[in-house]
Every structure is written in C-alpha cells, then in structure tokens.
Amino acid sequence: MQTAAPHPAATPIDLSAAIDTAVSAAHAGAALLQSYAHHRDDLVIDRKARNDLVSQADREAEEAILAVLRARTPGFGIVAEETGGAASGPATWYIDPLDGTTNFLHGIPHYAVSIALVAHPGTRLKLPGDQGITQDTPVIGVVYDPCREELFTAVYGIGSWLNGRRISCSRTATLDDAVVATGFPFRDFSFAGQYMPMLHDAINHTRGVRRMGAAALDLAWTACGRYDGYWEMGLAPWDVAAGTVILREAGGTCTDMHLRDPWPVGGRLVAGNPKIHQALQDMVTPHLDATPAASA
User: Fold this and answer.
1) Which residues cross the membrane (predicted)?
2) Is 96 marked as a binding-site residue?
3) Residues 24 and 114 in one domain
C-alpha cells in the first residue's frame, strides 16, 4: 500500500488552489485524449499484461497532467498509473490519465480523467476548525468525462459538484430497489472465486447490475444518484482515489471492502448511499477470503 510518513506541514494546504490545479490538469489531459479519439487506429498500443493495455494517448495525457501538477504543487508526491511514483510530502496526487482505456480504444464513449489529492497524517488544511489530518484521506477529487463534458469535483469538508451544480447520492433504502454498478475480473482473476458469488447475489437481490468499465465514473455516477451503490475488486489506487472523495462529499460512503484501510487504496471497495453501502457490505462479506491480497 502506498503510504507516507506523518508530515507536519508548516503551511496548511489551500484546497481552493488545489482543486483549481486539479481541474486545469484534468482539462489538459482530456485535450490530449480527445485529439486522438477520432483516429484511434493510428495509436501505438502496448500490452502491459493480459487485458491491460496502454496507449500513446494514455502516456501523453499523463505527461500533460504531470506538467501542470509539478509546476503548481512541487512539494506534493505523485502516484501515476503509467509513470509510477510514491506517496510523499504533506499530500500526494493520484492520477489516472485515462480510466476506461479499453472503452477508449474500442470507440466506446465512456472514459474519464481521474485526479485526486490524498493528504497524509499530520497535514493541516486551510479550513475553519481544521485539527489536522490523522490518517491518509482523499481531500480533492476531479473526474472529467470529456465525451459528455461532465466535470465531477469535490473538496473535503465542502461538497461535491457536477459542472458546478452541487450533487448528492440517492436516497434508495433497499437493495431490491437499487441499481448497482460493478466491474468483472478482467486482468487479475485470482479473486474470481470470491467475486462470482457476490455477482450472483446482486443479480438476484437488486433492481439491476451495470458494468460500464470505468471505475472513476462508477463512483461519480453513484455520487450523483445515477447508481445507488457500487462494488468492485482488483482495482488500483488511482482508479478510486478521486471517486472516493466525490462520493463521500456527496453524502455517500466509500470504504475498503475489508474495512482495514482508511480509503480503498487496495482496490477493493464498497460504495453507495449509507443504507445501500451497508447492504452491499453485508452481501459481499460472507464471500471474502479472510486475508486479502497485498494492497497496491
């Protein structure tokens, strides 16, 4: 798991400046993606592993994002999907330049840029009454869907927005009335024995299950009430960091599936409005192995 040692920041983080930086970086990355969107056949594509692709668009979008973040926040750590990095400083950026690469490469208009800032223990925030961060906490989240021109943003302690309009999660109270999102095993199949019984239960006990192929958007759509809940396994920290704070600030709950980490840094998560989150947690828990795989 990517963590940083406690860092007593001398100057509190200005979350207003941080969200502006993240939005600017997301637009820079999305501009690169969309420049390739209509001639994808010309892209250079590499295979990192089975069903794990990276394209020229991913790499160039990440470079554009990093240029903005490094120029404006040189003291923050960076963990990015394509270039790696490590948690450090008072806070760390978690970056997925193209969440939904397979969708993008197949011309399916459902993908996003995802950028989050995770504050580390000891860090102060420029917020009224702030007492400092006591555990790793996502405090800034941006998920930008350039196909729909939908910009989801969140600031810790302030709220979540879609294109500047405040959003909140659904009020659905029971699973049988809920539409939930998920993601199938596609790269790591080691947890398929745990996941398939969960999917069976969800199919039989919810109004419907959706699998769209972009975790950041699954979380953002749960935050604005399109989905009532969401669970998935086998993700990476950059897939879920931004969506976690967007959902939490929209009144929802997003937790590590094993209830061990302060946010789903290990890539196994349960999310939803509080009632659906609890119902999904109760649904998945009986099928979990006692010891999860090591966090990313």
Assistant:
1) none
2) yes
3) yes
State the Cα–Cα distance between residues 2 and 12, nearest whole angstrom.
Answer: 22
Judge whether 99 is annotated as a binding position. yes
Q: Among 131, 166, 201, which residue terminates a domain?
A: 166
pLDDT digit string, tens, across residues 106-151: 899 999 999 999 999 999 999 988 889 999 999 999 999 999 999 9
Kindly report the CATH number assigned to the domain that includes residue 88.
3.30.540.10
How many angstroms separate the CA atoms of 188 and 294, rounded?
13
Q: Known binder of ligand: residue 14?
A: no
- The whole model's pTM is what? 0.92
Q: What are phi and psi of 195, to 5 degrees?
A: -70, -40
Q: How far is CA 102 from the centre of its chain?
A: 17
Check whether 136 is labelled as a binding-site residue.
no
For residues 134 and 179, membership in a common domain is answered with no
Residue 63, annotated as binding a ligand = no
How many Å apart are CA 27 and CA 107, to the nearest integer? 20
